């Protein structure tokens, strides 16, 4: 069965480039980004892991830990890391899971046989502090991920987890948001002291409440 939003992210113990981890313990009280890449020493993956390292500070500001996985062993990861660092001008400052036995890939349904019987697709899982899956994305091996979109959606997930709002199409941090239908219009003024605009009875906008 595929994992669905709201499911508890499967726990596991694995070797990584930063030592052995228990996944749920490693997440702790943070948010987490778990993402897979098809194989070591491949061009798109080299750019993706480099970009992740460059953006690690941005993830940390949002309270998000990042961790990568592929079905290669630890020795392969350790040989590949210097290439990532050289080509991207950065230190790989997050763990990469060694998953030669495909335990993690199987738990998270990362191998799609119609795409490849051996390699993982580019899966993305964003997991909350409650260890529940908040978002999933799946890219083919040929398409590198847009990490700015991943950062954007984390902003939305964290905002909407704490306020009765939703984010509209193409929303970016700092822009107006939508009041959810669960909030009655007569209650909106108390809940959203910055004010709100009624565009349609079902579409009411308000300035981002945590800014």
Automatic annotation (TrEMBL):
* InterPro entries the UniProt entry points to: AhpC/TSA, Peroxiredoxin_AhpC-typ, Peroxiredoxin_C, PRX_1cys, Thioredoxin-like_sf, Thioredoxin_domain
Keyword annotations of the record:
Antioxidant, Oxidoreductase, Peroxidase, Redox-active center
The alphabetized list of GO BP terms reads:
cell redox homeostasis
Q: Which Gene Ontology molecular-function terms are recorded?
A: peroxiredoxin activity
Q: Pfam family example for this protein?
A: AhpC-TSA
Give the SUPFAM superfamilies listed for this entry: Thioredoxin-like
Ranges where the Thioredoxin domain occurs: 3-159
- List the transmembrane segments: none
Where does the source fall among the domains of life?
Answer: Bacteria
Q: What is annotated as the active site?
A: 45
Q: Which GO terms describe its cellular component?
A: cytosol
CDD domains xref list: PRX_1cys (cd03016)
UniProt similarity note:
Belongs to the peroxiredoxin family. AhpC/Prx1 subfamily. Belongs to the peroxiredoxin family. Prx6 subfamily.
Q: What is this protein called?
A: Alkyl hydroperoxide reductase subunit AhpC
């Amino acid at each position: 069965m595929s994992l669905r939003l709201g499911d508890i992210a499967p726990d596991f113990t694995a070797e990584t480039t930063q030592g052995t981890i228990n996944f749920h313990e490693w997440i702790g009280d943070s948010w987490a980004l778990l993402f897979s890449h098809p194989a070591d020493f491949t061009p798109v993956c080299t750019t993706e892991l480099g970009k992740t390292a460059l953006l690690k500070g941005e993830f940390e500001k949002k309270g998000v830990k990042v961790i990568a996985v592929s079905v290669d062993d630890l020795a392969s990861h350790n040989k590949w890391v210097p290439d990532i660092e050289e080509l991207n001008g950065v230190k790989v400052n997050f763990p990469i899971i060694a998953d030669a036995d495909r335990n993690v890939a199987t738990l998270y349904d990362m191998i799609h046989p119609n795409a490849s019987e051996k390699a993982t697709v580019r899966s993305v899982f964003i997991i909350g502090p409650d260890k529940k899956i908040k978002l999933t994305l799946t890219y083919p091996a040929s398409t590198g991920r847009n990490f700015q979109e991943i950062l954007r959606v984390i902003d939305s997930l964290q905002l909407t987890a704490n306020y009765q709002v939703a984010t509209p199409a193409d929303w970016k941090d700092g822009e107006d948001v939508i009041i959810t239908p669960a909030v009655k219009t007569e209650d909106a003024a108390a809940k959203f002291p910055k004010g709100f605009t009624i565009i349609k009875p079902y579409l009411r906008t308000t300035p981002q409440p945590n800014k």
